[in-house]
Fold this protein.
Amino acid sequence: MQRIAVLTSGGDAPGMNAAIRAVVRSGLEVGCTVYGIKNGYRGLIDDDMREMGARDVGGIIQLGGTVLGSARCAEFKTAEGRQTALNNLAKRGIEGLVVIGGNGSQTGGYELSKLGFPVVGVASTIDNDLAGSDITIGVDTALNIALEAIDRLKVTASSHRRAFAVEVMGRDSGYLALMSGIAGGAEAVVIPEQEIPAERLEEILNEAYARGKMHGLIVVAEGAKNNGEKLRQYFHEHKDRIGFELRVTILGHVQRGGTPGAFDRLLATRLAARATEHLIRSEHGVLIGWIKGAALPTPYPEVIGKKKPLDLDLLRLADVLAQ
Ligand code: F6P
């Protein structure tokens, strides 16, 4: 394979730039021409791509976000959109594609590979819900950002003996909430995989105060039915009976925009370099993920539509540690 391309798609994740850099430089090293596609699948359809040299990816390893841009592209979900993308790739003689992204992005890669176009995926999403990777690019940095906020909120919560909820990202996944809840010492964790009624959270906070705690902290995933706003409303409506309100901080996209830490830079570099090797060797139709301490391929059919389950034993651990 002589001409390859790389794109980043879906929600950006800290470490995506390290992955782009690794694809470009690994490709150049073995004599390939490497194209960068702008704005994910949008750029494939709009024919927005350009050849990249080693200097084009200089000074980006430490940057959050993605220098190529990203998008959630509805048009690529249509057969016409995908055909336009294939035509644009063919026009430049591009023979293979590295897709850096999470579930939706890898589904797009799988669709192209089913049409006969060589694609290798790189596991990247702060949600850590992608089958075929124990941990994905961006998770570690996003977790540390959530933790910094949690630690700060606990300080002010303790000073006033107040109750706080912190809402972290994860539309369909409670991973960030569960892990930041454990690492941040939360009194309760609320996740879409195992909902908790607001009444039970009220009890948990009251019990924590009765045990002499100076703060009550709930970490809640954005995708939980009782998300931050719902919990705020519940505690506000019943404040006279409960005796306190719940202050809610929604972290939102703050978690995605961080400077990638060492873990994410190294993970991204290793996954993307391995993905490039696989593509060039024509071992495509796979996702490269981190499995038991190594960058390894999993065939797309074993990844797509198979959300990675959350280890719910850890929810029990979070409860034990919240004594
Ligand atoms: O997929 C990553 C993620 O950050 C989710 O945690 C979140 O629910 C979603 O993206 C938000 O998407 P958008 O940036 O398109 O609003």
